[in-house]
Amino acid sequence: MGSCAGIKPDGGRCKAQATRGSQFCIGHDPDQADARRRRASKGGKRGGRGRPQAELADIKRRLLELTDAVLDGTQDRANAAVAGQLINTLLRAVAVELKVREVDELEARLEELEEIVERQNKRGA
Where are the domains of the chain? Predict the structure, then answer.
């Protein structure tokens, strides 16, 4: 088995090992596109939803610790202000990540619906 013949989104060559009897890895094999789409849809609905909540809980914990440290005098106010700005940037990144995930999930669902309509149109024609 050789290397996958697939091209990554950045234009580079995929370095994964091709599956037996194919020139592609499972991630690039056109015959596996439907299976990949189903797995991605399930993964988006199940696995990743908890991560942003965990990140937000961690951010809240950090902010509370930072606030307490400033109030009890163990943390310099200027350093705390910069840390607060950085935490705010992190919050914006988490929000953007959530929006991107939502768009990706909606695109996958739309593609699936379009395929269903196309198959129904072919049957009716």
Answer: 48-124
